[in-house]
Amino acid sequence: MKIARITGLMTATVKDMKLNGVKLLVADIEDGLGNPLESSVVVADTCGAGVGELVLVTTGSAARLPDGIAGLPVDLATIAVIDHLDIA
Questions:
Q1: Distance between CA atoms of 26 and 45, rounded to whole angstroms?
Q2: How many domains does the chain have?
Q3: Is residue 79 part of a domain?
Q4: 22 domain-assigned
Q5: 20 within some domain
Q6: Which range marks the domain in which residue 12 is found?
Q7: Which is it for the CA torsion 51, 54, 55, 57, positive or negative?
Q8: Ordered per-residue pLDDT tens for the chain, 88 residues
Q9: Please, what's the b/e burial string for 73-87 (b: 16 or more CB within 10 A of its CB; e: otherwise)?
Q10: Closest Cα partner for 74 from 51, 46, 34, 33?
Q11: pTM, two decimal places
């Protein structure tokens, strides 16, 4: 799992039919201190995240497990909106 900040929304009218109805977001993967590690990755949203929110994402084959996108051709998916993050 990784921490990411949602930076935008993405619309793709021509796509794999299995992705119809899936909300796609643009995010930056961050470290625990908010420093960007990877920018502008596309994530499938499963928890109603919005621009500016900090989220927990899962990657690889685990990204195809959450309800609503199970078995779909995605590599990153939001699995939680982070309310608070405390780094000691």
A1: 10
A2: 1
A3: no
A4: yes
A5: yes
A6: 2-67
A7: positive
A8: 999 999 999 999 999 999 999 999 999 999 989 999 999 999 999 999 999 999 999 998 888 988 888 889 999 999 999 999 998 7
A9: ebbbbbbeeeeeeee
A10: 46
A11: 0.91
